[in-house]
Amino acid sequence: MKALWLACCILVGWVASARPLELLDERSTEGDLEVVGEFSGGRTNGFIARAQLLALPMVTATNQHDIELQRRLVYTGIPLDDLFRQLPLAPGIDVVTAVCRDKYAAVYPKDYRQRHQPLLVLKLDGKDYADWPSAPSGARMEPFYISYGHFEAAPEFTAAGVEEEARIPFAVITLRFSRFADTLGRLQVANATGAILDGETIALRQCLACHFSGSTGGRLSGKPWLVLAAWARAEPDLFQKYVRNPRQVEPTSRMPGFPNHQAPALSSLQKYFSAYLMQSVGEP
What is the domain range of residue 96? Predict the structure, then answer.
């Protein structure tokens, strides 16, 4: 995997800046990046000027078939882990969440970043965000995009027949930095095994992008984690049907659905959410 990444990347700068990035109190342009988390000095948010980001050592990677634009694209940007090292973050921060303009949120734990090396893209085909194309849906893709020069799912991370997927958010406006124990860890079922563990894995990979628990996850759907859990517990068959084909249950649903999820994956999701509910309310 690492060899494939290196084969498609050209290192533009080798030496990381010794000085942490300066956090501004407000966004000066639409192309600035908001960062939220626990920073040294006690602050919990700030903005990084795009000029600062463009001055960092960057990589250029060629993706032969970009998923969003369906064509060959050249990315110029910063590996997320390199950005970690440039920020004055408090100890123990190990999760980054990319929040988009529409409140979709892609979550990148440390192990995922190390396997796939996601790139915070600042330029597409050498062009800064003002000249980026729109997505096929017509949605704006700027000011930030996260993608990969190459993505390859590892078979050992397949859960109930569902492979690990590339997390490719566009129109990213904020990066949130947090600790696993305070975010994803709170959504885990204690001592989960078998189908419950598979369902947990799928839920944290896929459901969390649009559904939330506290400050963890996305708010595109507006439906909290506990609502999903209560539904899964009360109406398991309808819950599974909705996951696979939402509009068959609710014609006005905006959820795209997961038509390729087979019975083991749907059952695992239902069992995880049901177990999570029981853990949350203190029932055995």
Answer: 1-182
